[in-house]
What we know:
The protein is an alpha+beta fold. The chain contains three helices and five strands; from the N terminus they run ββαβαββα. The chain has helices spanning 28-39, 54-67, 89-96; strands at 8-10, 19-23, 44-48, 75-78, 82-85. The protein has a five-stranded mixed β-sheet with strand order 1-3-2-4-5, with helices on one face. The protein has a single domain (8-96), classed as Glutaredoxin (3-Layer(aba) Sandwich).
Amino acid sequence: MIELDCLETVEGSTGDHDLVLFALSTCPHCRRARDFLGTNDLTYRFVYLDQLKGDEQKEVLEITDRFNPRRSFPTLVIDDEGVLVGFSETDWKARLL
């Protein structure tokens, strides 16, 4: 399980997976990803990388690199093993619902 102090939790009624969303606050694809998670009432944790500074941002980028070396967003880590990069509603539905 990814443990970072900067992760914010959004509670939903469905917590079948440990979902961690790495996103940018200004990214429209990241907004659609968060909307999808909320609409489907999924519990997830997230962080906006562009709102972090210094060592905290570096630490989060190192973790992101393990799952998505291209550093493209959104990056959704599923149960510390699976990953969805970018937002495609079809792909996200197939994997999460």
